[in-house]
Design goal:
mainly alpha
Amino acid sequence: MKQKNWYWAIAGLAALILVVLIWRACSPASPNASGSAGQMDHSQMDHGSSHSDPSLQAYLDEQNTIMSTMMDDMGNIQHSGSAAVDFLAGMIPHHASAISMAESYLNNGGSHPELKPLAESIITAQKAEIDEMKAMIQERETTAVKDEEQESAYLDAYNKLMLSSHAVHTDGDSLDEAFARGMMLHHQMAVDMSNAILVHTEDEAVKKLAQNIVDAQQEEITQMQSILDDLPKS
């Protein structure tokens, strides 16, 4: 008799556990838990904020795509044995992304009296420099002096720059602010790349190009910082 009662107790406990499991499976998830998971997924997908201004949001979405493409292209340059050629090969996709960012700003209604002509100037100047760099690479394909030690030193600095740039994300409360902040960081990357090649090559033509990039883009960084300082604060 005692053994029979023990069996019934075990069966009752098992039934109770089954009911609890079914109830928990059918119950809706906690709002706080589902909200937290949703936010995590969103941040992992676009690394940005959602804005009510459709032009600003469109620009930020395009900027994220442009930067992702740029980093992929810059990370896949072929090592040539020449630091100078590697610099040119990496700077071409970097310039291309600056052009795309400037075009995106203009296409999304950018009309700031200083930023609009700056964006137009970036497009014109960097398209011309891309053509110049492509010609320089072609010229050096057969004439560039191979120096793997020098190339390795440049690529070490280049790869450190690439790693630090992966963590960079820009935002803004307006289209003008987002463009200026994003382009300032973009310009700084070009300045850092150019400063790296200046100490890792004896190619005078490449050094002259790199110094021109440093001078022009540092000047534009200063200009954009001044514009940011004068933008209305929200």
